[in-house]
Design a protein that fits this description.
Length: about 500
C-alpha cells in the first residue's frame, strides 16, 4: 500500500525535525515488517536520497496572511464542491494534479509538530486543504501529534474543526488540545511527537562537508550545554550570551550551539543566529554548521542538558531522557514547549525569553546541572524509555490499521500510556510559575490585540478591494454605456437620413 505523509512544507531550509520524523516513520515501517511505501507531500532537497521515499506530491503553498489563507481555502472548497471557483487555468491544473495524486494513495498521515493557531494560519490551512481533498476522493487520513494553540479566531477554529471531523482519526499531543477537541465533539486519542522515537545512526547531510564531531565537541574538558535557538529578538541576543557565560563560570560547562533550521549552502537561519550570539560571549562556545539529524540528535543526547526555544529540539532531547529548559516569546511557542515538557514531567522548566536575566531562571538552570552531576536523571531516562514504547505502540497500531485500510479509535486505547512523572523545581518553582502566569496573560492580551488589528486591517483591505472592484466595474459600465450611446446616435443619424424627403421626385414618380 501507499501511505502519503505530510510533515512540513519544504523550501531551501533543512529542518532537522522533518527528517527525524520521516526517518522515525521509516523505522516503524521496517520494524513492523509492513508492506507500506511512503510518499512525501512536498519534495525536500535535503532529505536523504538513500531512503525508500522516491515519490512526492506537490501541495498548494498558502500565504502567511490570514485573510488570503481563508480566501484561498474557500476557493479550493468551492472547486471540490463542483462550484465556480475562480481558479486560474494553471492553478486549476495543479489542483487537479493534486486530486489525482491523492487518489493513487491508500491513506494519508499528517505528522503534526506545528501549533495550530491563527498566528500561523498557513500551517493550519495547508493541512486543511489536504484533508479536504482526501475527504472528497474517499482516502482515509490520520492527523497525529496535533497541538491546538491560541489565539484561534472563529473562522480558523471552524476550519480546524471541519478538518478534524473529516479525518478518520485525530491524535493530540497535550491535555489542552484534548480538552479543545472534546469541547468541539471530536474524539481525539493521546499521542506524542513522532520524533520521540528517533534512533539516530551515523549519516551526513547530503551536499555538505563531513563534520569532525570528536575534534570539535568530543575533546571538551567537561560536559556541555546544548543550545538551539531560532528567531529571538535582537535585544535578547546579548542577555542570552551573558546567561551562557554565567553558566560556564558557575558549572565549567561549555556551550555547543546546535542548528535545527538552516540553509546548508548559505548558512542562513540558525547558524547565522548562533554566530551572532557567540560573538557576544567570552566563554569560547562551539559553533556547529548545518548537520544531519543523526548528528544533531546525538549532540542533544550527549549534553548535560539543553536550552532551546524550539519544542522540536526539546522532543529530540527528552526522547532520550536529557533535560531541557525552554524559553518562549509567543503563546504558540509556549504551547509547543509545555506540551513536550509535560510528557516528561518538566513543565516547571520554562520561562519567557524576556526573563533570561532572572535569578529564578538561573537557579533552575543550575538545578539541571546539579541533577546531571548527581546522577538524578535516571528516573527521566526510564520515563523516556516508557514514552518511546508508547510512541512505538501508537505508531505501529496506526500503521497496521493503515495497511488494512480501516481505522479504529478504540484500538489506540489498548496501547499502554506511560505513567505520570513530575520533576519538581525547588524554591524558585512557585516564583517562576507566577512569572509565567503573568507573562502568559500579557502575551495573550498583546497577541489578541495584534490579531484583532490584523483582522481589522484585513477587513479594511477587503472592503477597499471590493470598492476598487466596484469602481472598476462602474468605469467599465460607463465606458460601455458611452459606446452604446455613440452607437445609438449613429443609428439615429442613419435612420433620419433614410426617412428624410428626397426632393420633388417623391411626388412625381
Amino acid at each position: 500500500m501507499k501511505l502519503l505523509i505530510l510533515s512540513e512544507v519544504s523550501d531551501d531550509t533543512y529542518r532537522v525535525h522533518y527528517e527525524a520524523q520521516v526517518l522515525s516513520l521509516l523505522d516503524e515501517v521496517n520494524n513492523g515488517a509492513l508492506e507500506i511505501s511512503l510518499v512525501c507531500a512536498q519534495e525536500d532537497p535535503h532529505l536523504e536520497t538513500d531512503t525508500p521515499i522516491k515519490e512526492t506530491i506537490k501541495l498548494p503553498i498558502f500565504p502567511t496572511n490570514r485573510g488570503e489563507c481563508v480566501a484561498l481555502m474557500e476557493t479550493f472548497e468551492r472547486y471540490l464542491a463542483g462550484q465556480p471557483s475562480g481558479l486560474l487555468p494553471d492553478e486549476e491544473e495543479q489542483f487537479v494534479d493534486l486530486i489525482e495524486a491523492v487518489r493513487k494513495v491508500d491513506a494519508v498521515l499528517t505528522l503534526g509538530n506545528n501549533v495550530m493557531s491563527s498566528q500561523a494560519p498557513n500551517t493550519l490551512y495547508e493541512m486543511a486543504v489536504l484533508v479536504a481533498v482526501c475527504h472528497r476522493v474517499g482516502v482515509p487520513v490520520v492527523c497525529t501529534s496535533q497541538l491546538v494553540g491560541t489565539p484561534l479566531v472563529e473562522t480558523d477554529a471552524r476550519a480546524l474543526v471541519r478538518t478534524y471531523q473529516r479525518a478518520s482519526l485525530v491524535c493530540v499531543a497535550d491535555q489542552a488540545s484534548h480538552i479543545w477537541c472534546s469541547q468541539h465533539a471530536i474524539d481525539a486519542a493521546p499521542s506524542v511527537d513522532v520524533a520521540t522515537t528517533y534512533g539516530p545512526r551515523v549519516r551526513s547531510l547530503t551536499g555538505t562537508p563531513t563534520y569532525d564531531l570528536f575534534k570539535n565537541v568530543g575533546e571538551l574538558d567537561n560536559a556541555y550545554i546544548g543550545v538551539a535557538f531560532t528567531d529571538p529578538a535582537n535585544q535578547l541576543i546579548e542577555p542570552l550570551a551573558k546567561l551562557l557565560d554565567r553558566l560556564h563560570e558557575s558549572t565549567g560547562y561549555h556551550t555547543v550551539f546546535i542548528a535545527h533550521e538552516t540553509d546548508p549552502e548559505t548558512s542562513r537561519g540558525d547558524v547565522q543566529l548562533h554566530q551572532r550570539i557567540a560573538a557576544k560571549m567570552k566563554s569560547n562556545p562551539v559553533l556547529t554548521p548545518a548537520l544531519h539529524a543523526d548528528v544533531v540528535a546525538g549532540l542533544h543526547h550527549s549534553a548535560a542538558f539543553n536550552i532551546t526555544n524550539l519544542h522540536r529540539a526539546a522532543a529530540l532531547s527528552l526522547g532520550r531522557g536529557v533535560p531541557v529548559f525552554g524559553f518562549y516569546n509567543t503563546i504558540s511557542k509556549r504551547v509547543g514547549l509545555e506540551s513536550v515538557l509535560a510528557n516528561f514531567g518538566m513543565t516547571d522548566f520554562v520561562a519567557p525569553d524576556t526573563q533570561m536575566h532572572s535569578p529564578d531562571v538561573f537557579e533552575a538552570l543550575l538545578e539541571l546541572a546539579d541533577r546531571f552531576e548527581s546522577h538524578l536523571n535516571l528516573n527521566l531516562y526510564e520515563h523516556a524509555r516508557q514514552v518511546a514504547e508508547f510512541a512505538h505502540g501508537m505508531l505501529q497500531t496506526i500503521m497496521k490499521q493503515a495497511e488494512r485500510g480501516v481505522f479504529d479509535r478504540d484500538a489506540l486505547d489498548s496501547v499502554p500510556a506511560p505513567p505520570q512523572l513530575k520533576i519538581r523545581g525547588k524554591q524558585w518553582r512557585v516564583r517562576l510559575k507566577n512569572l509565567n502566569d503573568l507573562a502568559g496573560d500579557l502575551l495573550a492580551r498583546c497577541e489578541h490585540t495584534d490579531l484583532e488589528r490584523v483582522i481589522a486591517d484585513e477587513e479594511v483591505l477587503s472592503q477597499r478591494q471590493q470598492c476598487d472592484a466596484l469602481m472598476r466595474q462602474l468605469r467599465e459600465d460607463e465606458l460601455r454605456l458611452r459606446v452604446q450611446h455613440n452607437q445609438i446616435e449613429e443609428l439615429q443619424g442613419e435612420l433620419a437620413a433614410v426617412q428624410r424627403p428626397r426632393g420633388l421626385g417623391r411626388w412625381f414618380g
